[in-house]
Design goal:
Elements lengths: L17 H25 L35 H10 L12 H14 L7 H31 L4 H10 L13 H16 L3 H12 L9 H13 L10 H19 L4 H7 L7 H16 L4 H20 L4 H15 L7 H4 L5 H9 L3 H23 L6
C-alpha cells in the first residue's frame, strides 16, 4: 500500500458524505428485504437445481417461506451460524465457520431480543443474525466509502459503496451470513492501516481473522504499509509489527482450541470437498469447469468463474497503485481456488477490495457507471431469485 491519497490541491476540501451513505444503505436494505418477499409471492422455480453436479440431491424440496419469519432470510450455511450461537461448536461440520459472527448474534439476542420475549432461541437467534448483518453492512459501506475517499478522491466514496451494495452477490450482506461482519472489520482494518492507526488496525485484523480464514491475509497490506513508512524514513513504531504476526497467530490459536475440542477445521473442510493444493482438489476444479460444457445449468459455474476472473483481473489492474491491497485480494482468491472449488467464489469476491477501487475510479465516466450498474443489477437479480427459492448461489 504505497500509493498516496489525493492532495488538497487536487481535491477541494469536502465533507465525508456519511449521511448519503447511510441513506443509500437504508434504501438498499428496505428494498432488498421487500423484494425477497415479492419474489417468493410471484413465482416458484422447477426443482431440483443442477447448478453444480452435487446440487441436485440437495435441492429436492422447497425452502422456508415468509411464514417462518427470519428464517426466510436464512439459506444454506445460515442454520450452522444459528446452531453455533445456540450451542457452540458441538460437531465438526461447524468448524469451518468462525466464531465472531455467531458471538455477535448471541449478544444481540441476549441483550436486545430475549429480555423482551422476541422469539424462541432459534427464531430469536436468526433474527439477531439479520440485525447483525444489517448493522455490519452499514459499517462496511462507511468503511469502504472512507477508503475510497482517502485513496481515490471524494467523488469515489459514494460510487465504491454503491457498487458494493449492488455487486451480484451483495445481497448476502443482509442475510444470515458472515459476509457483512467480515467486510465491516476487514475494511475497517484496511482503513486503520492506511491511516497508520496501528493499534486499531491490529485489533480489527484480529477480529477479521476470527470471522473468516482470509482475515489472515490482512497481514500483507499491514506489512506493506509498515515497510513503506520505514523505507520513506517515517520510522513507524517497531511494536506495530505485532499486527503482522497477530492474524496468523490467532488463526493457529483458534485451530488449536478446536483441536482440543476434538474438532478440526481442515478435516471439516475436506468433508466439504475442499483440500488445499492437492491433486484431487485440482481435478475437482477441472471437473467444475468442464461441467460448463456438459450441462445447460452449468452456466452458473461459468458465472462463478467470470466473477473470479474479474476479481483477479482488477487486482492486477490495481497492483501498481495499491500493491498491498492487490496482493491481499489475489491471496483471497488463491485461498478459495486453491481448495479446488469455484463454489462460493462469487461470494468471496465481495472481500476483494481492489474490485471496488477500480470500479469506483472508472465509474467517474457516466457511460461506464450506467453500463456497470445495469450489468451488476441484472446479475444481482438473477442471484437473488435463486437465493430466495433456496437454489444454489454461493
Amino acid at each position: 500500500m504505497t500509493a498516496h491519497p489525493p492532495t488538497e490541491s487536487s481535491a477541494p476540501a469536502q465533507r465525508f458524505p456519511w449521511r448519503a451513505l447511510v441513506a443509500i444503505w437504508l434504501g438498499w436494505l428496505v428494498t432488498l428485504l421487500i423484494a425477497q418477499q415479492v419474489i417468493w409471492a410471484r413465482f416458484t422455480l422447477d426443482r431440483p437445481d443442477h447448478a453444480y453436479p452435487w446440487t441436485g440431491e440437495m435441492t429436492p424440496g422447497y425452502a422456508d417461506g415468509p411464514e417462518t419469519g427470519p428464517w426466510f432470510y436464512a439459506r444454506w450455511d445460515s442454520p450452522r451460524y444459528v446452531q453455533i450461537a445456540r450451542e457452540g461448536y458441538v460437531e465438526e461440520r461447524l468448524a469451518p465457520h468462525f466464531p465472531l459472527y455467531p458471538l455477535l448474534m448471541r449478544g444481540v439476542y441476549e441483550i436486545a431480543l430475549r429480555p423482551f420475549g422476541v422469539g424462541d432461541a432459534d427464531d430469536g437467534l436468526a433474527l439477531a443474525g439479520l440485525i447483525v448483518s444489517g448493522g455490519m453492512a452499514l459499517a462496511a459501506v462507511l468503511a469502504l466509502g472512507a477508503l475510497a475517499w482517502d485513496w481515490i478522491g471524494p467523488g469515489a466514496a459514494l460510487r465504491a459503496a454503491f457498487y458494493l451494495l449492488i455487486f451480484p452477490t451483495g445481497f448476502y450482506l443482509a442475510q444470515v451470513y458472515s459476509e457483512a461482519t467480515y467486510l465491516a472489520v476487514s475494511l475497517g482494518a484496511l482503513w486503520a492501516i492506511f491511516r497508520r492507526r496501528w493499534a486499531l488496525a491490529l485489533i480489527l485484523a484480529a477480529l477479521a481473522t476470527l470471522t473468516r480464514t482470509m482475515g489472515v491475509l490482512l497481514a500483507i497490506p499491514y506489512l506493506c504499509t509498515w515497510l513503506s513508512e520505514w523505507w520513506n524514513g517515517r520510522r513507524p513504531p517497531g511494536w506495530a509489527l505485532v499486527g503482522v504476526l497477530a492474524p496468523p497467530l490467532i488463526f493457529v490459536a483458534w485451530a488449536g482450541w478446536l483441536d482440543a475440542q476434538g474438532l478440526s477445521i481442515f478435516a471439516a473442510q475436506e468433508n466439504f470437498g475442499r483440500e488445499m493444493l492437492s491433486l484431487r482438489a485440482l481435478l475437482v476444479l477441472a471437473g467444475d469447469v468442464l461441467y460448463i460444457f456438459r450441462e445447460p445449468n452449468g452456466v452458473h459455474v461459468a458465472l462463478d468463474l467470470a466473477l473470479t476472473v474479474l476479481a483477479a483481473a482488477l487486482c492486477l489492474v490495481e497492483i501498481k497503485r495499491f500493491p498491498g491491497l492487490a496482493l491481499y485480494g489475489l491471496g483471497s482468491i488463491a485461498m478459495g481456488i486453491g481448495s479446488g472449488q469455484l463454489v462460493s467464489m462469487n461470494r468471496y469476491a465481495l472481500a476483494v477490495t481492489p474490485v471496488f477501487f477500480a470500479l469506483a475510479r472508472w465509474g467517474q465516466h457516466p457511460a461506464f457507471d450506467r453500463v456497470w450498474t445495469f450489468i451488476s443489477l441484472v446479475w444481482f437479480g438473477l442471484y437473488l431469485v435463486l437465493y430466495v427459492h433456496g437454489f444454489w448461489v454461493g
